Amino acid sequence: MPRKTPWWRSATIYQIYVRSFRDSNGDGVGDLAGICENLDYLQWLGTDALWLSPCMPSPNADFGYDVADYFDVHPELGTLADLDRLIVEAARRDIGIMLDLVPNHTSSAHPWFVDARSGPGSSHRDYYVWSDPGPDGGPPNNWVCATGAPAWTYDAESGQYYLHNFLPSQPDLNWWHEPVHEEFEEILHFWFDRGVAGFRIDVAHGLYKDALLQDNPPVLPTDHPVIRRGKLRPVYSSHRPEVHQIYRRWRQIADGYEQEPALLGETWEFDYQRFGDYYGREVPELHMGFNFGFVEAAFRAPDLAEVVEGTLAGLPPGAMPVWTASNHDVGRFPTRWCGNDARAVKAALTVLSTLPGTLVLYYGDELGMADVAVPEALRLDEMTMNKPDGGRDRCRTPMPWSSDENAGFTSGSARPWLPLGEIGATNVRDEQADPGSVLNFWRQLAALRRDGRIGGVEKLERVLLDDQVWAYRVGEVTTVANLSDQVALRPLPGAGQLSVLASSGASHPGAEALGDVRLDPWQALVLSTRP
Ligand code: NOJ
């Protein structure tokens, strides 16, 4: 089948945390060659593109989200030649390679910052956000970084503070400074010229900061719960209107390439209208933005329906919604939503893949892979080290390929960089052999997506919604999901005429049995007017 164009519409994108996918050289760390070796599996899964977590050279204070060189590959993960080979080999299987671009900050080891820090007169000083101390000699304003500590670090040499919305070793770039735009435009060209299928853009909502560096105001009771987790509304330290200029320029660059690269922003914006703005209203901006409604929502019919209907209402006409429920920051949905119950995982995959739009799966989602309780002594993620939920390490553990030693993640004797979970039946080899596995159920859904039978962009219409059951129609397909551990019986007029494309439950009712729909606990059905 010829690759559809543009490839990213209604696509299935698979996120790979490179260090944890497959270790080809036995050093305990996953690498690009390990991905290359498993492209047949990724094709078999039905993926259109891989989004690779950052692969550029980095001191790894934030495992690649602290970039020291935007034009190369981290030696632990491979070489530029390995990446080129991956792009070519993946393309042979109709799979695009998306990279993670980190434009909000660099590593403090990046030569720009090393130079900037050398003094106020240095040629890269204005690449970063510097400010004199506040009136009391302390930080210039009340902004806090991702750990909750002040977002400013004092540089004794120059007597100024520099801004970092994340770790002190991740200084924020100053997007008011035109040369920063030029640098990143060169970076885009460099990678697009090498054939990458697009970028996931880190902290896409945050690149510009208020020019006056005003204090953030306190949170309001009406703010979204995510904002209310902090004490301040980050209205001056991120979410600035000027950020849209960047994406208008980048969109023009991307649209000039034959491979139709996609810009997929990490857009933490819970106001549906403002979220939709990232796609561009009058002038095109990002091709797609992550909406994180699902990662905050409970796995309940009304909660999911609210996110979906709100998101769709906020998008500009023709915009491509993106659905995701797991990633390397927020954890895995099989654990968060489903308590690692395979029935619920299948129901969740059914919902995710039948909504109109592009789907982003996280490696292991297709297996129902769970978060892993990483013992305190083995935790590595500095940013979330003290978080009682186990921090982000819990969702970055190695991929289970088999039930062999180290789950087949590494062939070498080195200890995997993060511990594996319990080695049980949740692994690729065993699930491939089990017709009832999450993996084989995902494959059914993937085949329907590949054939354009589900996940298309027709309008979503609500058919039924109550505390337990959510049913919606997209084009010729109706999805009915029982998001509870109780049996549900619901009238579904006309259901008797529909054929069953997929059923996540043990029972597979034939079309004639449907009219009133009876759903087992956590059962989801995909029904169609076409056989
Ligand atoms: C968002 C990334 O997903 C996260 O892993 C990282 O720590 C921050 N941005 C900072 O780059």
Low-confidence stretches: none
Number of strands: 18
The CA-CA distance between the termini, in Å, is 21 Å
Strand order, largest beta sheet: 9-8-7-3-2-1-11-10
- Mean pLDDT, to the nearest integer, reads 95
Please sum up the structure shown.
The chain has about 525 residues and is α/β, with parallel strands linked by helices.
Topology:
Elements: E1 12-16, H1 32-37, H2 39-45, E2 49-52, H3 80-92, E3 96-101, H4 111-116, E4 130-131, E5 152-155, E6 160-163, H5 178-193, E7 198-201, H6 225-228, H7 243-255, E8 262-265, H8 272-277, E9 288-289, H9 293-296, H10 301-314, E10 322-324, H11 333-336, H12 342-354, E11 358-362, H13 428-433, H14 438-450, E12 460-465, E13 469-474, E14 477-482, E15 488-491, E16 499-503, E17 516-519, E18 524-528
Parallel strand pairs: 1-2, 1-11, 2-3, 3-7, 7-8, 8-9, 10-11
Antiparallel strand pairs: 4-6, 5-6, 12-13, 13-14, 14-18, 15-17, 16-18
The protein binds 1-deoxynojirimycin.
